[in-house]
Amino acid sequence: ANYGPNPICKGCLSCSKDNGCIRCQHKLFFFLRREGMRQYGECLHSCPAGYYGLRTPDMNRCSRCRIENCDSCFSRDFCTKCKTGFYSHRGRCFRGCPAGFAALEELMECVEDCEVGQWSEWGTCSRNNKTCGFKWGLETRTRQIVKKPAKDTIPCPTIAESRRCKMAMRHCPGGKWRRPAKTKDKKKKKKNLMERAQKQHSIFLATDKTSQ
């Protein structure tokens, strides 16, 4: 019998008073809902979470996703949306993205990461574009971006870095060497001390004559 007026029979071609829909209208999906010990059929336009629509010549059905931690799927073996806290990657769900892939938090997906090449050798030690005339300078090395990330929001690792280095040639050939500022300061301090000492000595001699 067809129990059309009953809400449980909405979209059914045939319906049982106790078991609900037995056969669905064209394009609708048959879903067997379970509530405790009872189960009954429903005809739906789209399958609920954890199920996907399987179309067959006989009747379209809602089939359960067989992928772990999947909330909705396209087919038995391809998840389209993972449960909360899991990232979607190639139809599977992961707690963390595999190596070579970066987590896109807003979509909870794993996308291709930025790939960089090997570091070059350290460059020439220089300072102010000169390779002499200073004791210390900087040397730099670089690497190239081999593959850009799939999303612009994924940052690439640093492609250049520098470090302090000691110059091979402190004095430039043919150039005048200037005494470092620290040496000048020391000489000036020494001269001031000598002048102060001479002044104090002169005062002492003058005082000594007066007392006599």
TrEMBL record:
<keyword id="KW-0358">Heparin-binding</keyword>
<keyword id="KW-0732">Signal</keyword>
<keyword id="KW-0964">Secreted</keyword>
<keyword id="KW-0879">Wnt signaling pathway</keyword>
<keyword id="KW-0325">Glycoprotein</keyword>
<comment type="similarity">
    <text>Belongs to the R-spondin family.</text>
</comment>
<feature type="domain" description="Spondin-like TSP1">
    <location>
        <begin position="114"/>
        <end position="167"/>
    </location>
</feature>
<dbReference type="GO" id="GO:0008201">
    <property type="term" value="F:heparin binding"/>
</dbReference>
<dbReference type="InterPro" id="IPR036383">
    <property type="entry name" value="TSP1_rpt_sf"/>
</dbReference>
<keyword id="KW-1015">Disulfide bond</keyword>
<protein>
    <recommendedName>
        <fullName>R-spondin-2</fullName>
    </recommendedName>
</protein>
<dbReference type="Pfam" id="PF19028">
    <property type="entry name" value="TSP1_spondin"/>
</dbReference>
<dbReference type="InterPro" id="IPR051514">
    <property type="entry name" value="R-spondin"/>
</dbReference>
<keyword id="KW-0217">Developmental protein</keyword>
<feature type="region of interest" description="Disordered">
    <location>
        <begin position="173"/>
        <end position="212"/>
    </location>
</feature>
<dbReference type="Pfam" id="PF15913">
    <property type="entry name" value="Furin-like_2"/>
</dbReference>
<dbReference type="InterPro" id="IPR000884">
    <property type="entry name" value="TSP1_rpt"/>
</dbReference>
<feature type="domain" description="R-spondin Fu-CRD">
    <location>
        <begin position="9"/>
        <end position="110"/>
    </location>
</feature>
<dbReference type="GO" id="GO:0005576">
    <property type="term" value="C:extracellular region"/>
</dbReference>
<feature type="compositionally biased region" description="Basic residues">
    <location>
        <begin position="176"/>
        <end position="191"/>
    </location>
</feature>
<keyword id="KW-0716">Sensory transduction</keyword>
<dbReference type="InterPro" id="IPR043601">
    <property type="entry name" value="Rspo_Fu-CRD_dom"/>
</dbReference>
<dbReference type="InterPro" id="IPR006212">
    <property type="entry name" value="Furin_repeat"/>
</dbReference>
<dbReference type="InterPro" id="IPR009030">
    <property type="entry name" value="Growth_fac_rcpt_cys_sf"/>
</dbReference>
<dbReference type="InterPro" id="IPR044004">
    <property type="entry name" value="TSP1_spondin_dom"/>
</dbReference>
<dbReference type="GO" id="GO:0016055">
    <property type="term" value="P:Wnt signaling pathway"/>
</dbReference>
